[in-house]
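Ticket reopened. Same input as before:
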Amino acid sequence: MNQTVIGIFAYADKLLSAAKELREYGIEEVSLLSPVPLTEDTGQMNGNSRDFLRYFTFFGGISGVIAGTLFAVWTSVSYPLPRGGRPILTGPPTLLISFETLILAGILATFGGFLILTRLPALKKRPYHDRIGEDKFGIVVKVKEDKLTHIESILVSGGAEEVIRIED
Amino acid sequence: MSGNITYKEINDDVINAMTRTGPLYYVVLAIVSLLTVLLFFLPWVYQIKTGQGVTGLNNPSYWGVYLVNFVFWVGVAHAGTLISAMLYITHTPWRRSVHRSAETMTFFALIISVFFIMIHMGRVWNFYWVLPYPNQRTIWTNFISPLIFDVFAIGTYFLSSLIFLYFGLIPDIAAIRHRAIGWRRKLYEALSLGWRGTDREWYIRDKAYMLFSVLIMPLVVSVHSVVSWDFALGIVPGLHKTIFAPYFVTGALYSGFAGVVLLISILRRVQNSAKYITERHYDKIGIMLLALSLLWSYLTILEIVMGLTSHSSFELEHLRYKLLNPGFAGMTAIMMFSNTILPLSLAIRKIRVSITCQCIISIFILSGMWLERFLIFGTALPRKFLPYAWHDYHPGWVEIAITAGSFFLFILMFMIFMKIFPVISITEVKEEIGMPTERGT
Amino acid sequence: MSRFLDKLFARFNIYREPGYYGKYDYKWTIVIDLDKCDGCEACVIACHAENNLPVVGEEECSKNRAFNWIRIERYVEGEYPDVKVKFIPILCQQCGKARCEVGCPTYATYHNQDGLNVQVYNRCIGTFTCATYCPYDVRHFNWFSYKWDAPLEQQLNPDVTVREKGVMEKCTFCIQRIRAGKDHAKDEGRKIMDGEIQPACVQTCPAGAMTFGDLNDPESMVSKLAKSERRYRLFEDLNTDPSVIYLKRVMK
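Engineering reply: fixed in the latest deploy. New output:
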């Protein structure tokens, strides 16, 4: 049986040392909740899968350029109407439209990638404590029943103000 | 900002600013709403019913105050993105308390500029024909028209600034949602998407913010260049200049920063956020205003000098009209005073950190920039090529009313926004204070 | 595969040709002899009658919103009694490289296969870009929905639309007459003969100052008149390639 535990801390350095202790104890899935981004190398915690965002932007941008160029070229060619003594396929306007769609698709793809990678919006309620939004920090661990008391003691000795068990 | 502010204090201050509303707020809101409806929407409906003849537009002067307002509001919209995006890339610390209000200013200014595009059209009910979508008219839009560049550029900018604004708001709404009750609670819980602040979420958010900033920066430059090419791609003597793209972009940033100064001064007073918006902010924004003022003055003088050395009799006639005709010469003088001479006083530090002085200078700058755009249109179009067709342009009452109404609309939108969403960026201010450790922050 | 690529490149080259010139059947031109024009403005009235132009009234005219698709510009030099007046009728020059066509976002003005710069009233949404870009100021806007009191609406030309407010319009070289002429010629299986079609202004001019025809046809009157030494076009250095050729005035 898995049990989710949150430890609430008031100070960030205590949080980080408690997290290191838990990792040394052998638990991998340690989530840190905080009201501000933590500045240490928490990024390295869960592997390289976190750097995917730039691929979203890149492929979004490429598809944006292709879409914009296709727009300008294909629509002018489907219904060619002479205007202004200028050729049907023009250089600068096509470039400009492609640039705008590049940015548009890039931004939409980045936002979509953000939502996908952070698995937001959260449809089911996830472990959280209300004071995290204000000034408290938290560690969320999911442990088996037998290790529960040991984890709780690590948290309390690490400086947690409260340790809460969350029912799944 | 002093390091003695605690995290909880920031939350409490922001929530108090949003929830503590006295009767004065409601009175001002009622007056502003009434003025918006009376001055903006009712004249517009009258114009749609009667036709564009109620304006002061005439045969050569087909573009008047409406496009001046359009360019003005798109210009004001640019500084918000500059503050959020460019200053994020350069890791400037003083951006943190002001960037949310600047981004909001961008978004609302863009809404108003889209309104002005619709207001200046002759047949507004067919407005959607400029959008490229497959239709049974068997026609697409004309992609070499600068107005279609406009549709793409302003549409992209609108969506991008909306996403940018919302994206920055997610952690802030998550920080205040537990204190909300009723409809606000539901709104915040829906909008914050269940943000918890895990390390993974923060990491990806920071990466995404940097990517957004990098993408939006070239967009800002291109949007106002595209707006300037609306005018520069015609062969009208005063408008057909290659300097227009950098000139307009500089003017946009300039007027936008002045708008930001006014906005944060008003917010500082109304929301009692004096400890978040300090002298340091005014100092730095003052230096930016001074730099932009010098750049703008250089480009203006360059434009005039290029016209004088152009050997084109049409261009010289336009310049003569702009600089020597009594009415327009006065306007040019006011414009040069407000935009070039007065901001030179920002070189003195005492003036820069004084809030009243900066507000007065900003009001002058905003009026000067509005006059600059009015001078561009009001002098170029009445003196086009054929002398028989020359005719002056005088704005009608509808145009003046809608211009005034647009400012009230902006104030109305902002007043409603500042009571629903946090105007100071909670998480970024907390970041600036530093993390609470046992020995202190 | 290479045949496909060749065809693709051939199409590409057609589309890259400035003006897409292969499409035009005729090249309608008006030659105006300024020696013969005496500024009587009969052409203006004929245009009003033919194309359902409204009479906008004195107040609108004072705001320079007069509705004349063709106007006689008068340039007065000198003081009485040594006054010299020059007249020049200005109508839409039907430019080959029209600036107005570049600006319209909805293709409401484009170059049709007659080589004319046409205005499609149904597509116009009134952005004023074409009118601002026009160097000759020949475009007019329907500021209101103009009304004709009874019984004046009975003299409206049924071949021509009555425009509502918010739409741009300009001289069309009486395209309704050109179309009727083309249909008639197609029925008889021939091309249009020189002099068969005349726009209202050309037809009415009492001094015979205006001539209309196809410049592509070397035998037509306009081709012969266009070779005159007095010929010039308005604002040629703006590169708009106008289709109206003026013959300079020589008489004092």
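Helices of chain A lie at 12-25, 53-78, 91-117, 148-158. Strands of chain A lie at 2-9, 30-33, 137-144, 162-166. Please confirm and we'll close it.
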